[in-house]
Amino acid sequence: MDSPEEILNRYIGFSKDYMDDTRNPTTDFYHYCNGKWLEKTPIPEDRSRYGAFDMLYEKNMYILRQILEDSEKEPGSPEEKVLGNFYRSAMDTARIEELKFQPIEGFMKKLEIQSRDDLPALISDLSIYGVQVPFDIGSAEDAKNADIYSLYISQGGLTLPDRDYYLNDSMKPILEAYARHIETMFTLYGYSRERARESAKTVVRLETEMAKFSRSKTDLRDVEKAYNPFKMDDLYSKYPEMGFSAFFGKTGFRAPEYAIIDAPEFFEKTNQLLKSESLENIVEYLKWKILTGSAPFLHDAVVKENFNFFRKTLLGQEKITPRWKTVVSVIDSSIGDYLGKVYVEKYFGREAVEKITVLVNDIKATFRERLEKVPWMGEETRKRALLKFSKFNAKIGYPEHFKDYSSVEIKPDDYLGNVLRSGYYETNRQMQRIGRPVDKTEWFMTPPTVNAYFNPMGNEIVFPAGIMQPPFFDPEMDDAVNYGGIGGVIAHEITHGYDDQGSHFDENGNMVNWWSEEDRKRFDELAQKVVDLYGSQEILPGLNVNGKLTLGENIADLGAVLIAYEALQKRLRAEPGKNKNIDGLSPQQRFFISWGQVWRTQIRDNEARRLATIDPHSPGSVRSQIPPWNHPEFCKTFNSEKTAREKIIMW
């Protein structure tokens, strides 16, 4: 019998077999590229969506599972010993069943406070270990001084994916199911049914109040309005109930000169809520945050109830994910650099880096040419855009240095403890670096990750090893397929440097205005056309793409197809022997189809609704066809006279 890896390898890359060529590509490009694949590919019961990204992610999961199992049995390095201990602790379900709620009793004991004066220190203590409280705290490059790390504090406190789940009438059934879930969880913990019901009402009420104070995901995209520096003394005096003073006073972390917060009105109103609410109710809310945050690491009854709400009800997932897959994800997010180091050493070759570097250079050269001639940009702004591009950097494969987790105690019999101690390590690491020079070699994703990103403060794109596989990059395929796959992803990430957010950052990664007023106005006019175009796309009956929330990703997609296609044309001119048909398709057709197949996705309705609320990316069905349709050469490539669509050319 074929292994899961072999099955995935056969069905993961570019293929003409996925296509439904009875469809007209100029009216339904998504099904033209993917129609047969969509017909034959059901969503696995343990997933809420399934597509090209997910299939490659799953392939990597099998590889990482093998690493962890080998590390548990025969560790060959200090890193593998740590990985093996973590994996053993997570897979020892007999011990986890025996412990029941014991792993969280230490935290629950902390909640036995008698005075409101103890509350700020309690909130601080919980946040250090990653328990979700009404704020998120960490450090990152200062958006206005990108050479140093600064303290960032963000609105938080909600358990559901977004404030809309609490405030929109259409989400009322989910909110009611959430209250029932809280009641069930507290009952499992040992509360009477009556007490559990009252606690659930309290939690939902408090979170709904915080939802009213919270900025929307769309509003948080305004990077200027989300940059609000406060001197620490002002932060302590304005929001005393939030525990910021205790966070630094009690932990021994050195308080910086200032902190940057994203939504001052949220902190002001939440501080008032904490002050006016009874201590008993706040404690119940914090108990819930401990209970729900630890649920995936506890015994079977809790894990199943957690799945029933957060995956089955919320996302429509039919069956619980196999435990080993969940554990791989947990270890990757906890001590991911150890896992990534072994992954790179055993499964990743330099050949892929070298080949993708050629692609990166081709696309960089093409993007620079577009910057030099884009018609709506004035000369002074163009000079700054080119200066920014001259300092642009690309990181490929894996970091120069991996994090050292040797100070983290990873026990073979303490799953939740391992997660918490890893969380404390990361909090400590982020707090200790505040005010220090930025480590320009740092990565924000682990090497096995199937993704890529643009970092505006670093003026860099980053491509982990995990994405350098089919369908994105396949050394056995022709250039057209690879330029449409990984080439499009590279161009997408480069374009982020000049989208509605990235364009606010200069060549040094600092948030400054380097645009003329006229150019920004012209840019915003084009951006509004993108908002309108994508906002017209229906996902489900009555549910459209949020054009404002997805603006940055949509701009990047439109730029990606234009730039990667042009780079391919240059490569074909340089090597004309490659400009030939394969399987009856021209290189130009294969490029567009490759892009369209990368975004093939099956998705459950509940998950589609959730992503429409919180995800800055448009659905795969939209990403697959709107950018090709926007390309001036698309219709000609597929021998169509249809040219009526407006072309939005930004980059």
Note down, in words, how this protein is organized.
This protein is α+β, with helices and mostly antiparallel strands. It has helices spanning 4-10, 29-40, 52-73, 78-91, 93-99, 102-110, 119-128, 164-167, 172-189, 193-213, 217-220, 232-238, 244-251, 264-276, 279-294, 300-315, 323-347, 350-373, 379-390, 415-432, 479-484, 486-495, 517-535, 551-574, 587-598, 605-614, 620-630, 634-637, and strands spanning 49-51, 135-142, 145-155, 228-231, 258-261, 393-397, 453-455, 460-464, 538-540, 543-544, 601-603. 56% of the residues lie in helices and 8% in strands. The strands form 4 sheets. A 4-stranded mixed β-sheet has the order 2-3-5-4. A 3-stranded mixed β-sheet has the order 6-8-7, covered by helices on one side.
